């Protein structure tokens, strides 16, 4: 196999990336079709979904006595994507392990996060993205309320992350 002025490794990486792009497009088209074909009926009235108290796992609590409240308000038909609201009352510090990718939007309060070697504070209007398989230390001085969306990254995404990290 002649690679011209490019080495075999360069050609292999380019072919691998092209394969990932094709899989990503095909996977998203299939996911979009599945969602449209199985879309829930439009709401005809408001549905009350109050936050439900949830206990922090003792092994995750680093300080304080956090009180969690949460509710999931949307789940795709195949269960691959879910959205909800989460609130934590402090003062407290706890560790959170992300089994799936999670995107959050802060509505009220604030939280200081130690995540992947960086420390930063998220306040109302801020968004944060967490990758599956990572941990974050959350320090809640008083209260934080966030909306969240979680999803399992695709096989191609997980493979790509292993290659580039």
UniProtKB/TrEMBL annotation:
Gene3D superfamilies: Jelly Rolls (2.60.120.10). Residues 79-147 form the (S)-ureidoglycine aminohydrolase cupin domain. The keyword DNA-binding does not apply. It comes from the Bacteria. The keyword Nucleus does not apply. Residues 1-17 form the signal peptide. This is DUF861 domain-containing protein. It comes from Roseococcus pinisoli. The lineage of its organism: Bacteria, Pseudomonadati, Pseudomonadota, Alphaproteobacteria, Acetobacterales.
